[in-house]
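Notes to self, Threonine synthase:
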Amino acid sequence: MRYMGLLQTYKSYLPVTDKTPMLTLQEGNTPLIHAENLSNELDLDIYFKYEGLNPTGSFKDRGMVMAVAKAMEEGSRTIMCASTGNTSAAAAAYAARGGLNCIVLIPNNNIALGKLAQAIIYGAKVIAIEGNFDRALEIVREITAKHPITLVNSVNPFRIEGQKTAAFEVVEQLGKAPDYLAIPVGNAGNITAYWKGFKEFHAAGKSASLPKMIGFEAEGSAAIVRGEPIPNPETVATAIRIGNPATWQGAVAAAKDSGGQINYVTDEQILHAYKTIAAREGIFAEPASAASIAGVMKLKQEGYFEKGQSVVCVLTGHGLKDPNIAIKSVNGDPMVVKDSEEAVMDAIQKLEN
Ligand code: F0G
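result:
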């Protein structure tokens, strides 16, 4: 049967009514890929929930399809969000599909090239502020409170509803809940959504157990770990460069109630994990996504896991979103040689050394 998208597939678990338009770009239904090499190396059973294969290349499509469908149902004409890039790409795409206007506010010079390209080509009004994501979200909240514009950041509860479907898929694909769910934490909507999804599927009798939720912030923006907002968050993983997570309490509750934890990883650990999953598993995810696997590597070293336990790492966005980081992180400019067989053979030999 043809896949009909998230609203259709999980209708009975979502706030879908007779009046909700069945908007879809065929989001969701992303693969759960077994990490053969890393599992062997770390003595764990590791899987990647590869959310980069959503229509706009990130998990945001799950929440955005629900939020935009509800905005349409309510007769809204315009949606707006603040974004480190992926939310704006998803908002712009679903607004285009649904015939709505879209306004996005981004931190100037701090979003990845691919994400900016997406928002522009889908036809959103893109405004870059001289300020960070946290400030952009404050401004969006102020504007949408005063004007007939629908806010589609993850403080919109429909976003969380859509995003919880990823947990449903993990349970269906694995045949059970994993022992651990490892996930990057930025604004903290996604960890909150996964935890809600796991609990709902458990309550519906679809899984016998619940996973421990382990969330990872970037060290330079680890507000939750430090226990206070960070005015000037910094990290190479621009997607999670957030100093005052809007769903802070949701993340804390997910970790506490599941018996997991919120921890942090350094930029170095993020880039190491980022390169490792590409070079060892053939999977290209953006730096923020690699925070999940970096976190698992860190906790493994600290003796946190038992041998053979199952860990699903959420890879939140596609690596092609941020090509500049890929090239920079491996000194990746290709060797340029003459167009002859000899020159190419020479180059191959040099590269082997
Ligand atoms: N990974 C990626 C690739 C993201 O884009 C984000 C968030 C996260 C992880 C963290 O998810 O915020 O739910 O904890 N990006 C938002 C955006 C902030 O604007 O695209 P979270």
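- Residues 59-151 form a domain with the Rossmann fold fold (CATH 3.40.50.1100).
- The chain is about 45% helix and 15% strand.
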